[in-house]
Amino acid sequence: MSDERLVGIVLVSHSAEVASSVAELAKGLAGGSTAVPVAPAGGTEGGGLGTSAELIAAAAAAVDRGAGVAVLTDLGSAVLTVKALLAEGDELPEGTRLVDAPFVEGAVAAVVTASTGADLAAVEAAAAEAYAYRKV
Fold this sequence. Notes:
Blueprint: E1 8-13, H1 16-29, E2 38-42, H2 53-63, E3 69-73, H3 76-88, E4 96-98, H4 103-114, H5 120-129
Parallel strand pairs: 1-2, 1-3, 3-4
Helix pairs in contact: 1-4, 4-5
């Protein structure tokens, strides 16, 4: 499947290191799939802890292949920042969706599912389903 129509995935964390590490983990567990466009958007422009609307918008633009963009977030203000960008309407690519999913498990499920060529609804459903993953 050509990566031209794969769902893009943005991982928004308060920490650049966490966002990058989760992106690396998800791609690795998806068989090292380099076809799925995944971009971390962590921390602030200055490298501190926090969230940046500019970094999120740039990451979403970078992974947009026309099949939609799934955005997963770690904590509260990351969610609020993405919701504000979506409300503005012109900051994120058309078809960008905030996905309600656990950050790490959801990211892995989203990347694995996107690597199959699934559409945005299926990627979102797989990521959200990760809430049901039991560890004990």
